[in-house]
Fold these 2 entries.
Entry 1:
Amino acid sequence: MTALPSSFDVTLALDIVLLVMLLVVAGAVARTRSLLAAIIMFSVYSLISAVWLVVMDAPDVAFTEAVVGAGVSTIILLGAILLTRGEAERPDWRRLIAPALACIAVGGLLVFAAIGLPGLGDAASPANAYVGRAYLEATPKDIGMPNVVTAVLSSYRSFDTLGETTVIFAAGVGVALMLGFGPRASLAPPSAVIGDHHVVPRVAAKLLIPLVALFAFYVQFHGDLGAGGGFQAGVIMAAAIILHALVFGLRETMAAIPPRVARSLASLGVLLYAGIGVICMMNGGGFLDYDYLFPPSVEQQIPGWLLGDSEHAHHWGQHFGIMLIELGVLLTVSATMVTIFYGFGGRTVEAARQEAKQ
Amino acid sequence: MDSVLSWIGGGFVVAGVALSLLGAIGVLRFPDFYTRIHAASITDTGGASLVLLGLCLIAGLTLTTLKLVFVWVFVMLTTPVAANALANAAFSSGHKPRIGTFQIVRTDERRKTPRGPDAP
């Protein structure tokens, strides 16, 4: 490393390379007329953004971007494209003038606003000097959790996270209201296995799905210590279920996880999250104030060996509260993703059936 | 000892990157879909394996090495299967491989002739 000149900034070089790649991919998405290619390139765009977020030291966000942007949303968009045409027509250039002007205006505003932003990692910027520093200093004392991102997300700002979880739930309900909860008629059994072309993906999926599900639980329960948490784990779990449906067929997956179970779990997650808040209120605290998760009479009964060292003893409520609301987030996110996938998958099956009839 | 290992590891990383670059050139230059996917898949798996092996040597015997091994297993399980699925889908939908002698067509001449369905 000493051979490099001191002015050579590796992070800056990586930033420039990744941003140029993002720009190229975005231009290609705008130019292509094939919707399939556009979806795949969107997936590439998300993956590059995820790498860039890792470079910017935001692994929690990068995680979400990689799983949601490059993984699940690509699958759902592919499901949507099966219901429509694969090619977009080239529109008349006169109809492009107004959208182009709008894009230039919004882009110009964003560039103008970006000039006023403080530098990346600037210690004197308001976010780092006041709020961020306060969180960093208070987290060990208040919550006793190594990952400050998880502490901020699920304890200090648990109202926001409850809102986000509810938004995801509402999105699932919206898709289900438009597309339904899955195929309305029962699905045909899979055709004979003789001459099966898909044996290699099948074997690989059998090996992969348990590993992916296990990784989802690791991400879920390791969220206190490292990058991860309910959102990421929920989407990884949904990805495992969707992989099962892609390889083994919608019928098999719906037998394992019926749509009724999926939508019940989605609402159960939000209920669990809000219910924790109500329990805290019943014990005399504020809504989602985990210090009041257990009434004092219960907290005195906890045996000493469970509490660990005295420093962490009074964070018991915080740890349990965060674990439970993260479980609620996991349930809602994964079940909502699966419900949305069932919605698209059911429509695809019906469209294929109608085509076969004609 | 440590510095020797990290130099060897660095060599593996550079070799892996070079292999991936060769794969990218192959995807652009090879004549038809099947040869292209061959170039993409083999060099991708091999290049990633070499890079991960190099990183393992640099990291030494730590928890990071174990995580890198997990990543390697995942890559070995997914990349070849993805290539197989792509080639299988192309073959099932009737995409024929190009068979015959390979003629190098200059780019300016290729532009003049319209592209047929089996053009590279």
Entry 2:
Amino acid sequence: MESVWQRLRSDGYGMLGFYIIAVFALAALLVWSGLLGQSWAVVSGGRWESISSTHWFGTNLLGQDILQRTLFSSATAFEVGLSVTILSTLLGTVLGALAGWFRSSWLDELILWVKGVLDSIPFYLFAAAIAFALQGNRWAMHLAMVITFWTTTARIIRGEVIRLKQREFVEAARAIGLPPRTIIFRHVLPNTSHIVLVQATIVFVAAIKTEVILSFLGLGIQNGVSWGLMLAESSQEVLAGHFGNFAAASIALFLLLVGFNLLADSLQDAMDKRRSVS
Amino acid sequence: MPKTTQCVILLTLLLSVACSPGDPDEVTTSKVYRHAMDGAPASLDPAQAASLYSKFLVVNLYDTLYRYKYLARPYQLQPNLATAMPEISDDGLRLTIEIKKGVHFIDDPVFAGGLGRELKAMDFIYSIKRHFHPSSRAQGAWLWQDRILGLDLWKAEGSDYDQEVSGLRALDNYTIEITLTRPFPQLIHTLTQGFAAVVPREAVEKYGQQLSSHPVGSGPFRLISRNSTRAVLARNTNFRQEPFDLKDEGYDQKTQGEVGLEDLQNKVPPFVDRLEIEFVTEDAARWNAFSAGEIDFIKVPVSQFDNVLSQRNPPILSSQHEDIYQFEAASEAGFIYTNFNMADQRIGYHPDPERNRRNHALRCAMIKAFDWKKRNEIFFYDIGHVFPGVLPPSVPEFDPEADAGYIQRDLESARQLLRVNDWQADNLPVLEYGFPNSVTERQIFEQFRNFMMDMGYPADKIRPLVFATYGDYQRAYSQGKVALINSSWTMDYPDAENNMQLYYGPNAAPGSNSANYNNSEYNRLYEASTALNESTERTQIYRQMNQLLMNDCVSITGIARTLLFLWDKKVIMKPDRSFLGGYFLRFVDLEDSLQTHE
């Protein structure tokens, strides 16, 4: 049987997505390590300078280099994407597994009720409320996303755990007297990894998109730069005929999202056991 | 004849009657002026007319005792609801004002029979008292606080409207007497404000908080509709008949001759039947609406300055726009500044004299590192007026000889000041720079941080403190929670006292002195100046106070913006955004060809 990686490698679109993400991830790593994009705040040129050998993407209103800001923004995107994905997936997986395992118990009811309440609140309204409540806190946006993004993961994992609970290996584990905690975390959850992985890529994309939208609205990144802030800046520049910010931020965002979508699709196919059997 | 045929004939007849043109004489014509503003009024209640946008509408829906002459510059006071300028007692403490007879509020169900009753002196008394009544949520009390005899006591004793205030009396139905606690030459200016507009008591009592969206005034217009994006006003047909007189309004043929104002002579304002005022906060949307001819007037967004100007200094309109638009460049009556919060020990006053001295040096270094030339170039298209201190070119006290070094960037001196006073990157304080959430405010912050970085201030030690709205921001700095306060001041009236009080010690937070500056010499000079009218003596005092502010390095100031206005050539007007504000709308007229048929 082919491994997931082998199946992924054989999918051209999936690999294209992988390489796109790898390029952005590399840029983010270099930014974090202080080797790239460190001059994003520095005024290094004149107002709205065109593309040149000094400023590959031109400059913005203040004379800041748009390339530096675009690169730094990829680190912002990954920082938000990774933190939100890890936390919300962890939360969703654990709560989903508990709800599924203890199906129809008070715990299941409680988790489903909380999930229902959170799902019923319009997301951007909720994010704005959190941002205003935690005035100036740099983690307000992350918190809003984590609080709301775990619900989908939890719903999917709950269903999968309910299904797995009927399987023989779980019956066997129960028969030998293993406690539920061990069965859930050692035997059941590892069998949901394919779902978790695909769901994580979807959350990653959603987090990046949401960060851009929230930053555009002024509810996101406070001290730094992101593609959302660049797009917000561009809203005042495009009318005056300056497209540097708009083009750089929207192309970067588009490429990264396409990369993730290609990879997620391919990953889903590669992990589809029915497909691997055929 | 079959029934179907009968029905068809009947329908055809009905339709033909409905669609036939009526008698041409019956067609009504109306003049509609379409204005655009970059913000919306939060309330139309005069007691809450704090913003430029609220005031703009309020003075058209209500009456004030005085206003400014439409065309005279510098601004001159003009009786509005008053019959003449006030009679002032020799000691300057008692003012007697007569109001016009026969002025009526608009028709409204609050009045007997729904017909607007006559406006009386007591209405004015009541309207001022409202600012001192807790239920009004009024915002204009500061104009008269500690100034009018007995008013503060009236408030302290429970704000009973039926209880008389000794310094605010109606001698009869048409005579008002105001007694001051001390001379206050600016009082008449305060009576031009939207805050001083006259409301009928019965409307306040009936509508309560709803008065903010249901105005009942005696101004030249009445409200037809209003929502968050537009307001429609119609001419108040009962507005008093006072023919327009060019000379009386301060017309200057040399500078104002090209607009067509002569045609207005002897006409009775308001000249248009309907005002449609759009509230469009987005520059791009407002500009697009103007370009498409959907609105008649615009304050040109800075992003369009390149497009509309062929020359910056002085601003000249490009030929392509010259053919279709009237143009005016006006210096703003006010200024933009960044205050240091003197109550913050990291940057302001410090109990340790040594640290106090070093803080002073740090503030002075930051002022030297600030690049006004760049600020003007980037955000004001290089046509703003940079000046040292708080006396902008729009006030007579402006000093062309003032210390220009205060507004010139000198990075070497700034770095030296830091060095000499033992400030290094590692011991410089972390400072929060506050601003309300907007793209431009963020860019202004980033530019400020860059200026400081050039001097050696670490980027991570100047941090943004972002607030959802300007109101939140204002609340925060009024409570002393912001170290670096970037803000702008638009003068309430054309008297420099309005700027000088911004740094008067007793006005410290939560008052208007957001810098929390408290210098006994400055306070003494301010107190000495308050009794003085505009004069050489007062000018000298103000300039001395201005110099004190600069010596103490209290604020990075300032720049007065140059605003560009464009309006359709078929609209006859001289727009104004400062002291005259919304008062000019009653004098807007359209060429006859612009009349629309209804």
